[in-house]
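ok, trying the design again with the full structure, not the truncated one.
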């Protein structure tokens, strides 16, 4: 008798569940409103300042290599090479990142200052080294490296004591460097740019430009270096 009652109750419950499922169209699987609200992310509102520097940087990026130096006449007619560097980094800590744009021939660094775009540096290897083979950013320094049979050539860029600073050094002249336009030694250069401590995880890869896709629309969050 108890067994029959159990089977009867099980049948009723089964039929009721099927009926409910058919009437609700499977809504029992839907998350409640609180779960839905947690999954929906509100778009991040940009400040006027962010809109301004992003717009200015977009214009430079879309112009490609039109503003990049070509000191040794190595760049083709298209300007910026198909493989290029692109990133942003706040060197001076003012809350507005600088734009880093270039390729294996030269790198330019831009900032947004006083409601306008300003180029703060053109960086390229000194004569005799020519090409940029590696690009690093660490310790708030941008380091260009050219690999040669006699060692490496280095170009450094950073910000300190209220101004942007550049320097060059190469292994073929181990006792000499140029720091902010003044002849200096290796120690002084290395104390600023730390080239003996370059890490592989600080090396920045080249990006591939696809001309068929039209203008590049950068994801700024992915470009922070």
């Amino acid at each position: 008798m108890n067994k029959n009652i159990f089977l009867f109750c099980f049948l009723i419950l089964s039929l009721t569940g099927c009926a409910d499922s058919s009437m609700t169209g499977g809504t029992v699987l839907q998350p409640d409103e609180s779960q839905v609200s947690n999954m929906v992310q509100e778009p991040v509102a940009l400040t006027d300042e962010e809109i301004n520097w992003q717009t200015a940087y977009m214009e430079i990026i879309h112009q490609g290599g039109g503003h990049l130096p070509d000191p040794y006449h190595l760049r083709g007619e298209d300007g910026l090479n198909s493989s290029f560097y692109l990133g942003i980094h706040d060197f001076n800590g003012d809350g507005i990142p600088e734009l880093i744009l270039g390729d294996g021939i030269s790198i330019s660094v831009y900032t947004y200052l006083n409601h306008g775009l300003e180029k703060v540096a053109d960086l390229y290897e000194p004569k005799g080294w020519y090409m940029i083979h590696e690009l690093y950013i660490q310790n708030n320094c941008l380091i260009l490296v050219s690999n040669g049979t006699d060692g490496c050539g280095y170009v450094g860029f950073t910000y300190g004591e209220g101004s942007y600073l550049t320097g060059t050094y190469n292994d073929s002249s181990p006792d000499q460097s140029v720091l902010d336009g003044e002849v200096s030694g290796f120690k002084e250069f290395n104390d600023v740019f730390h080239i003996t401590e370059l890490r592989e995880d600080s090396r920045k890869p080249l990006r591939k430009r696809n001309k068929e896709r039209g203008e590049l629309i950068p994801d700024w969050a992915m470009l922070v270096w």
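Keeping the full-length input from now on. Helices lie at 2-24, 33-39, 48-62, 186-193.
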